[in-house]
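By convention, the token line describes the chain's fold. To illustrate:
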Amino acid sequence: MHVIEAFGHTELLFRWSAVWAMINDLSVICHVGESHAQMLSEWFEPHKNISVAGPRNGDSWKKYLKKLPIEKEDVLILNTTARFKHWPSELLAHPRLYMVVHNVKYQFSSQEKFRWKLLPEYLKKIVDQPAKERFHKAVKGIIVPLPGMAEFIRSENADAGEIHVIPFAYQGDEVPSSARRKFRMVVPGTVIEKTRLYPVLIEALNYATAHGLKGELVLAGEAKDEKIVDDFKERFAIQEENEIYSGVDTGGIKVIIYRRLIPQIEYEELLSTASVIIAPVKKDVVFQTQTEEIGRTKLSGAFFDALFHRKRLLLPAGIGIDLPGTSKFTDAINLGDQLLSLAKSMVPVEPDEKYAISRLASLWESLIFNSHI
């Protein structure tokens, strides 16, 4: 099986590697850019059936993919599709080509096709809609993480082909409470206002610290929104050192903000030390020309971060997802109350067979060995 990640979104390769390693008679080659190759090679080292390749020595992705030696019976997974017209025709002609879908409405909404028809001719030349439709016809099947996403695709495209529902992570082992030195709240993801409700988070911390909450808050993603950084600076005595902002308020909450990309292995370590994961995501997020609904047509990576590391997950009410260990908050005060309660007594996340690593392995086996050319 060949897995192509040409755009640097390697999180799924980290999460799925242990699943692929369980499958007998499977060899996996992950094709990634040079900047990710060394880190993935180290991560894959325990898994003898998984290797890393990709364009090197100045080769472009298009040139590399044109000469990629793929056998007719091999499975080919496009982990991130991005701009469709850039994929070489040789790749799209492969009979066992699958795509992982992250933004369902952008990919498959009938409204998207209608929008394209209304565009002026000069704009049609720079929009990918015809290339996107050719791409959809080329793929044998689609991979999505939730049944609701599959249902949406079917409702918009009855001829979408195979749709495989495979969660983006398996449920990891529980971290013993004795391993946690302090109450650590982790908010995964790039720090930008358009996708997350940071003012609600700050208000919740104000309330919780006034009622005795102590611990640490980590914004586990590159801070790209200066307004959000300034809001936290106003609340905390933040100082910068080596591209990391940190500070402690008078109530005893330390906040850490990263002004750089966090390498995947460092990111996984941060998540593994969390007491709780907070995902203050907005329900509706604009991607390209479409408004995606979180939990229905698009997911936040934080959901499967919590599942993979078996952490309790706090989400806003109204987000249509119910993974193991998920709790919903209605407003800042309710979030603050839940943080205070968890700081006093952490409730273990119960195992869920739906997300067991063995079940994910069986789902991948079905795709690889039971779907024929």
Q: What stands out?
A: Residues 114-119, 122-127 have pLDDT under 50 and may be disordered. The chain is about 35% helix and 20% strand. The longest helix spans residues 357-370.
